[in-house]
Amino acid sequence: MKTVASTGPAWMRPVPNILTVFRLVLVPVLIWLMLAYPSWHDRGMWAAFFVFFVASITDKFDGDIARKYNIITNFGKIADPIADKALVLPALAIVVWNLRNMVPTWLFVLEAICVLLIVVREIGISIWRMEMVRRGKVIPASRGGKIKTVAQMGFIGFSLIPWNTFAPNWVVTIVIFVCAIGLGLATYLALISARDYLR
């Protein structure tokens, strides 16, 4: 693991990578909770929301700490995007699948296409970045890639709130379409950031 001249205390240096690994550990917990509490009628969905929120916060903290104390490692450059994808991709697919009975068929099809595009984009860019690593060049996450990840996490977090347990039906209907718009935006940002990487 190669570390670039850290300006922080010695005990702080492994913290960003520990947070990244912790995020990976939370992924199977989140998947289990999302499958166990798939409906907005289930108050148990709050547990999935909480786990996803904690995992998402670690993504912000590890980046903030790494930048503040100049704790930049090749492990972090590679593992952090992988942890993001491991967290986001299964959650995206499960969210859209769990909401299939709450949206019109045409909207479910559009959302499924969006998820497919995001998955293809993420896997494709990951393979490309690994090939760059094999050639000796580590490609860090771009600004567009980070914004894309925030949009995806925002969509998932919003969709993991069990709206039916406290909101009237008309609010739930609005939320459904807000979620759809959020997924469309996340898909657009994913494709744009992929183009920027390849350029």
TrEMBL record:
Entry annotated with the keyword Coiled coil: no
Topology with respect to the bilayer: Multi-pass membrane protein
Example of a GO MF term: CDP-diacylglycerol-glycerol-3-phosphate 3-phosphatidyltransferase activity
Source superkingdom: Bacteria
The keyword Phosphoprotein is assigned to this record: no
Transmembrane stretches, start-end: 21-38, 105-128, 149-166, 172-191
Subcellular location, principal: membrane
Pfam families xrefs: CDP-OH_P_transf (PF01066)
InterPro entries in UniProt: CDP-alcohol_PTase-I, CDP-OH_P_trans, CDP-OH_PTrfase_TM_dom, CDP_ALCOHOL_P_TRANSF_CS, Phosphatidylglycerol_P_synth
A GO cellular-component term linked to this record: membrane
Gene Ontology terms: biological process: glycerophospholipid biosynthetic process
Subcellular location: Membrane
Keywords: Lipid biosynthesis, Lipid metabolism, Membrane, Phospholipid biosynthesis, Phospholipid metabolism, Transferase, Transmembrane, Transmembrane helix
EC code(s) of this entry: 2.7.8.5
PANTHER family to which the protein is assigned, alphabetical: CDP-DIACYLGLYCEROL--GLYCEROL-3-PHOSPHATE 3-PHOSPHATIDYLTRANSFERASE 1, CHLOROPLASTIC (PTHR14269:SF62), CDP-DIACYLGLYCEROL--GLYCEROL-3-PHOSPHATE 3-PHOSPHATIDYLTRANSFERASE-RELATED (PTHR14269)
Family in the record: Belongs to the CDP-alcohol phosphatidyltransferase class-I family.
NCBIfam families (UniProt xref): pgsA
Name of the protein this chain belongs to: CDP-diacylglycerol--glycerol-3-phosphate 3-phosphatidyltransferase
